[in-house]
């Protein structure tokens, strides 16, 4: 039975009190007829929203109000929604009218909702069709139910061909668990993943896929899929990764990438409790190749060598270019030392094969250092440091060899670091001094020259051998100021001795290859002579063969400029290098110094005797004086005199001594007796 309530409108608060007084319930149906004379449409709309906020299941109807003077509302109450459509005998006529009203209202509402639905649907599909991403929907079995224009354009497939067909069969991938993702989506969980799909052109494109469940009344009814083509972005990312993680010259992983991979291997090894080995490989004296061919050509040589190394190592090994001419290798897990040694020797052999480059035949060698996880280091820093220490030991042994890390190498590494640190302050702290060793005439016993020999008296470690600190000084660039200091002070001391009685004494100063190659070297020699007042003819510069052979034309020009100054030039350690006779004829050389290694085992029937004899003959044939250094016995002296050696230097004459003892020694020695 319909209950009706009439209310004369005052304001919204009063209206709300009226509704509360009559216990209007939000889940009941009311047909609200509104008589609102002269009300603006906006006011009517606000009132409608206010009422339907409290009675959402009700219908609001505006009634013609032309004959009314005041606003009032009629609330026709039909009870709960489930009870509204029933036929009662009581008040049958009233019910008929009410149901007719209700049916009219419901029909109009349905038509409006249907129209609104069509509008929303048209709007939705208009948006979907205009989106450049591929979009399609599937039913709960994974079959296509719709596709957008971008999908048709990308794959040349429309809904007519796809209707009822499984989308999974078109996008199935071994690398991506599509079925698992789809099951998640129909369970109401949105999913995102990357997928490679073949476009109509036949090319693979990368898409970022979004599976979005369409849920109605808490149940998934369809799956909405959006796929964005990110192929260009991925290509850019790969290009950026290539730049960041790979070496441009060889194409190998660079130091940063190698370090990342090594960290991953260490984590995996910790988890699996297994060992593995890493190698450091460094090319021996590769600077010579760069100097000869130029750095660009040198990089091409490195590319060839990288391919050679790659062809030797196991497929599961990891090869990178660590820096410069240094390569790093992670050997497969479980590789034993014997196998690593075999691989290393094969690498060295393939590197030593001739390189034919720019009409030249080149030969390169390498050294290898090996460390083991976890015995030689439990992290990447320690492993690499120890492999590098082993590599340095291999190079110290002359190169072309393989060395496994041993704990003692760390001590040597720290010593080297300490020497380098101290060396930077040694000159400033006045820790260097010069020792002088006499060189006498083999016939007369007269003092001819003294060789200036640099010594370093470290405040903590005492005397450090030149062979230990000179290579470090060369490496870190300190050889230039140190060499210049020796040159100036040796010239100054010699001038002082001349002024005090040793009138014709000359001094012989060793010149490092790095020092000699400095374009300011000739000027430094001039400054040393001016500083000391020593005449140029009393200065001998001792150069090694390698110093002269590097940058040959520049070396020849520098020697000629020094010769024009009046300076004498000697070749030190002669016989240990690879001097060409054709070069020797071109060079303004005055002396050859036979290396002490030939004098140590110098006997009549020894190979050394034949070599020394050949050097004497060649030197005299070129008009050069010959000096034998390292002479310690009377037997050596006798044989050298027989071969007409010009000058003698060694412990048989005297050991190197400090400047303040040199003059005293000279005046108290009978040098002629040394020759008898």
From TrEMBL:
Pfam family, one: EAL
Stretches assigned to the GGDEF domain: 274-407
Coiled coil: none
Family matches, as InterPro entries: Biofilm_reg_signaling, EAL_dom, EAL_sf, GGDEF_dom, Nucleotide_cyclase, PAS, PAS-like_dom_sf, Rev_trsase/Diguanyl_cyclase
PAS domain residues: 120-168
Domain EAL positions: 416-670
PROSITE patterns: EAL, GGDEF, PAS
PANTHER family from the UniProt entry: BIOFILM ARCHITECTURE MAINTENANCE PROTEIN MBAA (PTHR44757:SF2), DIGUANYLATE CYCLASE DGCP (PTHR44757)
NCBIfam families per the UniProt record, alphabetical: GGDEF, sensory_box
Name of this protein: EAL domain-containing protein
The organism of origin for this protein: Lederbergia citri
């Amino acid at each position: 039975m319909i209950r009706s309530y009439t209310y004369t409108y005052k304001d919204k608060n009063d209206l709300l009190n009226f509704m509360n007084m009559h216990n209007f319930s939000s889940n009941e149906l009311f047909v609200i007829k509104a008589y609102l004379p002269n009300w603006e449409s906006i006011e009517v709309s606000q009132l409608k929203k206010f009422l339907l906020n409290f009675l959402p299941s009700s219908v609001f109807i505006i009634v013609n109000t032309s004959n009314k003077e005041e606003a009032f509302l009629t609330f026709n109450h039909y009870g709960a929604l489930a009870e509204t459509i029933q036929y009662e005998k009581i008040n049958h006529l009233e019910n008929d009218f009410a149901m007719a009203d209700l049916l009219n209202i419901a029909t109009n509402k349905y038509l409006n909702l249907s129209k609104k639905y069509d509008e929303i649907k048209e709007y939705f599909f208009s948006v979907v069709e205009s989106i450049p991403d591929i979009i399609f929907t599937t039913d709960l079995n994974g079959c296509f139910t719709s596709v957008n224009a971008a999908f048709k354009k990308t794959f040349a497939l429309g809904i007519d061909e796809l209707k009822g067909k499984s989308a999974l069969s078109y996008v199935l991938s071994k690398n991506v668990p599509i079925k698992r993702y789809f099951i998640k989506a129909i369970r109401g969980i949105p999913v995102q993943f990357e997928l490679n799909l073949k476009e109509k052109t036949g090319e693979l494109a990368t898409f970022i896929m979004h599976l979005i469940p369409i849920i109605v009344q808490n149940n998934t009814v369809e799956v909405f899929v959006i796929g964005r083509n990110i192929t260009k972005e991925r290509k850019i990312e790969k290009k950026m990764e290539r730049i960041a993680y790979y070496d441009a010259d060889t194409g190998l992983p660079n130091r940063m990438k190698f370090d990342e991979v090594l960290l991953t291997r260490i984590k995996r090894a910790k988890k699996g409790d297994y060992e593995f080995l890493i190698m450091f490989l460094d090319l021996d004296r590769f600077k010579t190749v760069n100097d000869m061919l130029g750095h660009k050509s040198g990089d091409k040589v490195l590319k060839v060598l990288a391919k050679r190394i790659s062809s030797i190592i196991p497929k599961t090994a990891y090869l990178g270019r660590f820096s410069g001419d240094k390569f790093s290798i992670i050997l497969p897990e479980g590789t034993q030392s014997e196998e690593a040694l075999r691989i290393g020797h094969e690498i060295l052999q393939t590197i030593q094969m001739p390189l034919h480059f720019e009409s030249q035949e080149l030969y390169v060698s390498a050294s290898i250092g090996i460390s083991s996880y976890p015995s030689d280091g439990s992290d990447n820093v320690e492993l690499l440091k120890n492999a590098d220490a082993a590599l340095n030991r291999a190079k110290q042994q002359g190169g072309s060899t393989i060395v496994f890390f041993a704990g003692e190498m760390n001590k040597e590494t720290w010593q080297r670091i300490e020497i380098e640190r101290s060396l930077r302050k040694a000159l400033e702290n006045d820790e260097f001094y010069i020792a002088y060793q006499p060189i006498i005439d083999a016939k007369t016993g007269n003092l001819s020259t003294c060789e200036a020999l640099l010594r370093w008296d470290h405040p903590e470690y005492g005397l450090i051998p030149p062979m230990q600190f000179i290579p470090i000084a060369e490496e870190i660039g300190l050889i230039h100021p140190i060499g210049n200091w020796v040159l100036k002070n040796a010239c100054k001391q010699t001038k002082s001795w001349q002024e005090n009685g040793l009138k014709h004494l000359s001094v012989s100063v060793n010149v490092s290859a790095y020092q000699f190659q400095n374009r300011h070297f000739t000027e430094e020699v001039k400054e040393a002579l001016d500083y000391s007042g020593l005449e140029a003819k009393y200065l001998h510069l001792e150069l090694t063969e390698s110093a002269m052979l590097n940058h040959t034309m520049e070396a020849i020009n520098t020697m000629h400029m020094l010769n024009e100054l009046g300076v004498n030039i000697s070749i030190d350690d002669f016989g240990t290098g690879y001097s060409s006779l054709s070069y020797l004829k071109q060079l303004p050389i005055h002396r050859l110094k036979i290396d002490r290694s030939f004098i140590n085992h110098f006997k009549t029937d020894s190979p050394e005797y034949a070599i020394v004899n050949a050097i004497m003959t060649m030197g005299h044939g070129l008009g050069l004086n010959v000096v034998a250094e390292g002479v310690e016995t009377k037997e050596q002296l006798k044989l050298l005199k027989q071969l007409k050696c010009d000058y003698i230097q060694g412990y048989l004459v005297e050991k190197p001594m400090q400047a303040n003892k040199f003059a005293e020694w000279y005046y108290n020695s009978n040098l002629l007796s040394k020759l008898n």
